Amino acid sequence: MTISTATGAERRLEAGWFQRLAWAALVWVSLGFLVWVPFLYVAIRRGRPSDWGAFASFTLYECVILPWSLVTEEGDGDAILGVVVVVTMLMATGLLLFALFDARTRPAPAPAYGAGAPNPYGQPTYQQGSPYGR
Question: What is the pTM of this model?
Answer without folding.
Answer: 0.68
